[in-house]
Structure of Methylated-DNA--protein-cysteine methyltransferase:
Amino acid sequence: MQSIFYYNTEIGKIGIEENGAAITKIFFINEDLQEDISEKSETELIKEAIRQLNEYFQGKRNVFDLPLEPKGTEFQKRVWNALKEIPFGETKSYGDIAKIIGNEKAARAVGMANNKNPIPIIIPCHRVIGSNGKLIGYAGGLDIKEKLLKIEKNYNK
């Protein structure tokens, strides 16, 4: 059974979902809450996830240590694994990620996979920017993407 719990955070209201073994989704309040398939329950794993997220928001954590099970295609999972390798406080372009996964012409497909990331922040899709250095696209909105990058810039010293 999926469990889900909602929290007010420094970046707004989020939901954290897990399947009994791993975190499966983190979403911003502007996304579909899927309450029909999830039990509202603050499990130990969800409590640990919000603890680590709060440490991240406060600049006390730059690496997450949680079991993750994002659902997606093999290509999406390759992209998401590459995102996890972007160091705290750094950014990469969609083209950079395409090169990292061995398909340098797949920048647009990387962008689509980035957009489908079910576990933002922990799988740091906010660290991917346009090749011109501009912030483009983020499920939580560009204002949240900007806040996350600012957190990392301020604490990456």
